[in-house]
């Protein structure tokens, strides 16, 4: 796994298994909202986090 910070984004690459739908809809992660583009958004203390699996 590699973590890079670039222009206000935290990009995590080289993950073998990551499926945001499985993670954020499992019932253990709360307040994540699915967006039309398939990403998931969470807002807390004025900070917005958005997670999406990127192909390629």
From TrEMBL:
Pfam families given in the database record: OGG_N
Keywords of the record: DNA damage, DNA repair, Hydrolase
Keyword Kinase appears in the UniProt entry: no
Cross-referenced SUPFAM superfamilies: TATA-box binding protein-like
Highest taxon above the source species: Bacteria
Limits of the 8-oxoguanine DNA glycosylase N-terminal domain: 14-50
Biological process, per Gene Ontology: nucleotide-excision repair
InterPro entries: OGG_N (IPR012904)
Listed GO MF terms: damaged DNA binding; oxidized purine nucleobase lesion DNA N-glycosylase activity
Name of the protein described by the UniProt record: 8-oxoguanine DNA glycosylase N-terminal domain-containing protein
């Amino acid at each position: 796994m590699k973590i890079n910070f670039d222009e206000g984004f935290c990009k995590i690459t080289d993950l073998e298994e990551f499926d945001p739908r499985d993670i954020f809809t499992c019932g253990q992660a709360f307040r994540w909202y699915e967006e039309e583009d398939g990403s998931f958004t969470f807002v807390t203390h004025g900070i917005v986090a958005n997670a999406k699996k990127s192909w390629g």
